[in-house]
From TrEMBL:
Keyword Signal: yes
PANTHER family attached to this UniProt entry: ALPHA/BETA HYDROLASE DOMAIN-CONTAINING PROTEIN (PTHR12277), SERINE AMINOPEPTIDASE S33 DOMAIN-CONTAINING PROTEIN (PTHR12277:SF41)
Protein's UniProt name: Serine aminopeptidase S33 domain-containing protein
Highest taxon, organism lineage: Eukaryota
Keyword Signal listed: yes
GO molecular function, one term: palmitoyl-(protein) hydrolase activity
InterPro entries cross-referenced by the UniProt entry: AB_hydrolase_fold
Segment forming the signal sequence: 1-25
Key words of the record: Signal
Cellular-component GO terms for this entry: endosome membrane; plasma membrane
Length: 110
């Protein structure tokens, strides 16, 4: 059984698609983007949160079942863990770029 299938009571996994509305200033048009992200809540009340940006050549799914996984990270540190797919990776829309990566992080942080 995959690790996410063995979640203990009190652990919540949410898959979200964040809807981001931005503007392309040079063309004066609005754009709509989606970022795939996950929140893994530690059992009980957590005092801390980690915003995890995965390394190059991977996507969110690699870290849900990897060793160690994001679930392991939440359990070990007794904190909530948030992670996401960068724009243009995994199931997130958009194009990969440094500016989009910074915007993705800001969207999750806000």
């Amino acid at each position: 059984m995959p690790e996410w299938g063995r979640l203990s009571v009190g652990t919540i996994v949410l898959m979200l698609l964040l809807e981001l509305k931005g503007a392309c200033a040079s063309k004066g048009i609005s754009i709509l983007m989606y970022i795939a992200c996950v929140r893994i809540a530690a059992p009980g009340r957590s005092r801390y949160s980690i915003l995890y940006s995965h390394p190059n050549a991977s996507d969110l799914s690699d870290h849900l079942m990897g060793v160690p996984s994001l679930l392991d990270l939440a359990r070990f540190h007794k904190c909530d863990v948030y992670s996401y797919d960068y724009s243009g990776y995994g199931i997130s829309s958009g194009h990969p770029s440094e500016s989009n990566q910074k915007a993705d992080i800001r969207a999750l942080y806000d």
